[in-house]
Specification:
The protein contains 4 helices and 8 strands, in the order αβββαβββββαα. By secondary structure, it is α+β, with helices and mostly antiparallel strands. The protein has a single domain, classed as Alpha-D-Glucose-1,6-Bisphosphate, Chain A, domain 4, CATH 3.30.530. The strands form 2 sheets. Strands 3, 4, 5, 6, 7 and 8 form a 6-stranded antiparallel beta sheet that branches. It has a two-stranded antiparallel sheet with strand order 1-2.
Length: 186
């Protein structure tokens, strides 16, 4: 009976783990990918968007850690290897690396934020490792481990939600900057 009650207590932890990645992030083919084609004012050229992107990158990222991988003005393609930090969630404090690809055309652009890494692993692998740790602790025969597993799962969910919010903030900042028409009257 005690084992049955313990299993019922763990069910929310184990069930949450199954869909946690897709519940917190946009997932395509098992990978986290934020991507969208964004229309802008029809008078904005690919060159205008290129200049907006360069200005945004200069203000949005610390280039001592982040670095341009590709900057092709002719092809209107920019790829950045970026880094961000999620405000520390208890027990989780690390940097997350990602690629941000900007493809620019007249009156529209496409962004893709993908290949997220943390602790030296692709995020999806790191995610699996952490979920397995939580499940291993949750399945422990020591009843004292169950609250620890539940607490770590709650913190892990908060971390994932914070990371998603951080990426959404980066994308929102990009969108706001890309839609501005350049003011050449300074």
């Amino acid at each position: 009976m005690k084992k049955l009650l313990s299993l019922l207590f763990l069910l929310p932890v184990l069930t949450t783990a199954q869909n946690l990645l897709s519940d917190n992030f946009p997932v395509k083919e098992g990978k986290i990918v934020y991507s969208e084609v964004v229309p802008v004012d029809s008078s904005m050229t690919a060159n205008d968007l290129y200049l907006n992107a360069k200005n945004w990158l200069a203000s949005a990222f610390n280039f001592s850690k982040s670095a341009l991988q590709t900057d092709d003005k002719e092809a209107k393609l920019i790829i950045l290897k970026g880094v961000t930090n999620v405000p520390e969630v208890e027990g989780i404090d690390q940097s997350e690396w990602f690629l941000l690809k900007l493809e620019l055309k007249n009156s529209r652009y496409k962004y893709s934020l993908f290949e997220i890494e943390t602790e030296g692993y692709p995020f999806e692998i790191y995610f699996d490792i952490e979920i397995k740790k939580i499940n291993r602790v949750a399945a422990s025969k020591d009843k004292r481990d169950i609250p620890l597993a539940k607490e770590y799962m709650e913190n892990f969910i908060k971390y994932n939600q914070s990371l998603n919010a951080k990426f959404i903030a980066i994308i929102s900042s990009l969108k706001a900057s890309m839609s501005k028409k350049a003011d050449n009257n300074w």
